[in-house]
Amino acid sequence: MKGIHLIVVGKLKDKNLESLEADYLKRIKNPSLIIHEVKSCEERLDEEAFEVIKKIDSIGKGRIILLAEKGKQFDSPEFSKWIFSHLEVNQNLFLVIGGASGHGQAIQERADECISLGKLTYPHKLARLLLVEQIYRGVTIRDGHPYHK
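^ thats the sequence. predicted structure below, dont judge the formating
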């Protein structure tokens, strides 16, 4: 199934963050957004991220996108266009948020692109919530919903 797969380090353990994330996730219907939680060790992140990608994308039509501080930055309307232009030509988008030590070498070498949430540094669990919100915002921009205004 075509969609967005968010590969993240660790589980959300804060009930407030869980509640906010769950609210956005239930609002996002098309495209599907699935969150895959993996271990926090750098080498393990690479292995587990590749395992998730292989299970979903055995024919290699998806794009691997890393969230990194030096990645491309967007405003919300640009991000919306970027997401949906990729989904038009790619089966899946795999957005990977690394842990405290960033991304391992193997996933960096395999990534198709890097994007950034901005110049500020965020804890990865907060970055996860911000990215989910921005995906929801992107959907509302595409659909002409007033949420973005």
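Helices lie at 15-27, 42-56, 76-89, 105-110, 124-143.
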